[in-house]
Amino acid sequence: MRAALVISLVLLMTLAARAAEGPVAVLNALSRLEPARVDTGLAYAEGARHRLDVYRPASGNGTDLPVVVFFYGGSWDSGERAMYRFVGAALASRGMVVIIPDYRVYPQVRFPTFVEDGARAVRWAKTHAARYGGDPDRLILMGHSAGAQIAALLSLDPKWLGAVGLDPQRDVAGLVGLAGPYDFLPLRSARLKAIFGPKAERWRSQPIHFATRAAPPAFLAAGERDTTVDPGNSTRLAERIRAKGGEADVRLYKGVDHRLIIGAFSPPLRLLAPALNDVTDFVAAVPARGGAR
Description:
The protein is of the alpha/beta class. The protein folds into two domains: 1-33; 36-285, Rossmann fold. 36% of the residues lie in helices and 19% in strands. It contains eleven helices and eight strands. The protein has helices at 2-19, 23-30, 85-93, 113-128, 146-156, 158-162, 168-171, 190-196, 232-243, 260-263, 275-285, and strands spanning 36-43, 51-57, 65-71, 97-101, 134-144, 174-178, 218-223, 248-253. It has an eight-stranded mixed sheet with strand order 1-2-4-3-5-6-7-8, with helices on both faces. Helix 1 packs antiparallel against helix 2 and helix 4 (113-128) packs across helix 5 (146-156).
């Protein structure tokens, strides 16, 4: 009883200190309640933005676990992996190996460099998954917002993973997209026009153009109250995948906006949207895909 009280007091003090840093700091502080282990700062290529963190179940004894590579959002010009500890810990506590990479962003780079960085991170995941108890043939690409666009392009357009010796139709078992932009032309923002380059080439940044029957099965979710990324991106991509003969499930959560759909991975917000449960169920159901490692 006394030990539980001390732990509770320490947690409350930690949350009070982190509250001044912002809501993400609070979510990450709470993530320490999740049964997960983490290895941080592993290099998947040279450069400061080419590091990743690996989360796995606290027992550390799992084998052949599904492997999720999660790409965070940030409008292609911001974000860092440390902000998403709460996502990695939540998924790891559900029996997954979770890899969260950083990638280069604007203005340091423009499209398609951040997608190429994503491909390198996936190559690392495929090569090293078994070391952390993961099954390289159960590789799922997942992203939120801009990260969902990256995950979708890697899953649907074979060009990017092909450059690192992989094939999404062979090596990616599933795609999870949360509040993702997949069909967002024409561009109106001057910043986005700079990020995605010449008008004639922008179609290459749109995952919807690369839907095929052989693409990995997809779970696409969005909040009905999302005013940052039109939820129609998710419904249109799901419809296109199904029209091509592929598999796609789409969920629109009532009362949920752009940030809450990912925030709901944290324990205090889970009652507001079943995103974590839905992702867990999808990952558990997708069959393994074999391939070169």
